[in-house]
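Today's session is about reading a structure prediction critically. Students often jump straight to the picture, but the first step is always the sequence itself: look for stretches that repeat, for charged clusters, for runs of hydrophobic residues. Only then move on to the predicted structure, which in these notes is written as discrete structure tokens rather than atom positions. Here is the chain we will use throughout the hour.
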Amino acid sequence: MGGAIGNYIKLRKERIPETGSSIINYKLVLIAIPLLLSGAVIGVVTGKYIPKIVIGTLLFIILIQVLFKTYRSFKRIRAKEIEREH
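Below is the predicted structure for this chain, in token form.
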């Protein structure tokens, strides 16, 4: 919490040079904070009522999916870089 407050104090007066608008996107903050808080509540409730093995298995499945998606993205970007070199 202290890091977040420190970053806010540091960044609140900074501006984007091209547009002059604040570096903090407050519209995005208005969308992200309620989602973050509701996700925390859902996480607490599921952690209370669902066995840890089920939660661990679901998190492992999500990890594997993200791993494969990242690897496919790596292969696509690497192929473009190799094509550009030749």
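Discussion point for the tutorial: The chain has a mean pLDDT of 91.
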